[in-house]
Amino acid sequence: STQPFTILLSPSRQILQEGAESSRHQLLIEAFVSAGRVDNITMVMGLHPQYLSSFWKTQYLLLRMDGPLPYHKRHYIAIMAAARHQCSYLVGLHMGEFLQVGGNPAWLQGLHCAPQKLRNLNEINKLLAHRPWLITKEHIEALLKTGENSWSLAELVQALVLLTHYHSLASFVFGCGINPEEDQDGGHGCQPPSPHSDSSPASEDSMGGSGGKDAMEEVEVLMERMKLLQENQLEEEGVTQEEMATRFELEKTESLLVTPSDIADHSLQSNVLCFVEDPEFGYKDFTRRGEQAPPTFRAQ
To answer: Where is this region: Disordered (predicted)?
Structure first.
């Protein structure tokens, strides 16, 4: 009795899959026609056509449609935001875009070569990236203050949207392990895995040869250490959650997954660090016990 139902269901499922693939194909064509290229972010997001559609429209409105900021300044703000999170992929991508829309190549030597008006965004950029709860109305007032390098309200709104957008996008790039474009330093093409493929995601092609295997081995070593810590916790009495978290952090820091800061700094390309002032400024927990801290704003 179920056989006729199965016969009816299979073609409809195939139609849905073909429709999704057609939608993805159309979006990639539109992206290519608009920007002259299909970047690796678009290729990865293409696995989820509805999400890609919303993202691409947002990107198009922010970077290419009418607005108070000139196109080259929009891309420079994107560079500033991505550099704050040391995302070399986005920095390199928008350096190219910056030049294509007529940006001054001298600005790409570093933030110190940019106009003072853009440099004035540095403080709010680093706060938005790492400790947004520290932003006050005074930060906004300082940028809007009448003067040679003042921002209009419309300009500042667009700038802040760009900053927060690219802070978030940097996390997506890191989370998906997106590679540089073919025309960027160290770049190569990105072939997104098929959602219906049975191949392992940790294959040599997708993980960069032996580097992927090494990374997986490091993860396994770290997981083993975490497991041992948990077993020891069960044997010990009076171990608090805070103390356990501290032990986890110490184990992670000492593992092969975490590169020492001095080595990490040298490995970063100079075209990223040159756009960052006060690179030591980063996230700091603001809810530690026994310390005077700003109140936590809870949306839910």
So the answer is: 183-213
